[in-house]
Amino acid sequence: MDGRDLAQILKRCLDGGDKAEWEAFIALAQPVIASGILRGLSRGASANRELADDLIQDCFLRLCASDFRALRNFRATDANALRVYLRTIAV
Q1: Considering the entire predicted model, what is its pTM?
Q2: What's CA 44's distance to the chain center, in Å?
Q3: d(CA 53, CA 30)
Q4: Pick from 85, 66, 64: nearest CA to 76
Q5: What mean pLDDT comes out for the span 28-35?
Q6: How far apart (Å, rounded) are the C-alpha atoms in residues 29 and 25?
Q7: Three-class DSSP labels, the chain
Q8: Are 25 and 5 in contact (CB under 8 A)?
Q9: With contact defined as beta carbons under 8 Å apart, do 29 and 74 qualify?
Q10: Confidence band for 56, pLDDT divided at 50, 70 and 90
Q11: Tell me, what's the pLDDT at 91?
């Protein structure tokens, strides 16, 4: 990571963050989510980029559902724990 703390950015986003904060969160969370999805797809026979892109979008939609409930339920303050949480949701 480039020094920005993913968990801190998420906290600012959920506390009413602006567009720039959300873009920073997405930029840092997208590779984590993508790695979980790609790892899961690699186990199956139908791994293709289009399917992976659709699943990544679906994961973000689920994270945002019900006023970001899945993100608000995350309680740890550690960026590594948040990465594991996001990857687990993606898988």
Answers
A1: 0.87
A2: 22
A3: 11
A4: 85
A5: 96
A6: 6
A7: CCCCCHHHHHHHHHCCCCHHHHHHHHHHHHHHHHHHHHHHHHCCCCCCHHHHHHHHHHHHHHHHHHHHHHHHCCCCCCHHHHHHHHHHHHC
A8: no
A9: no
A10: very high
A11: 87
Q: Encoding tokens for residue 88?
A: 């687990």
Structure tokens at 28: 């840092």
Which residue, chain included where needed, has tokens 């699943």?
A: 55
Cα 19 from chain centroid (whole Å): 16
User: Token digits for 89?
Assistant: 């949701």
Residue 5, token pair as written in the block: 């703390």
The structure tokens 């797809």 sit at: 41
Structure tokens at 7: 């968990």
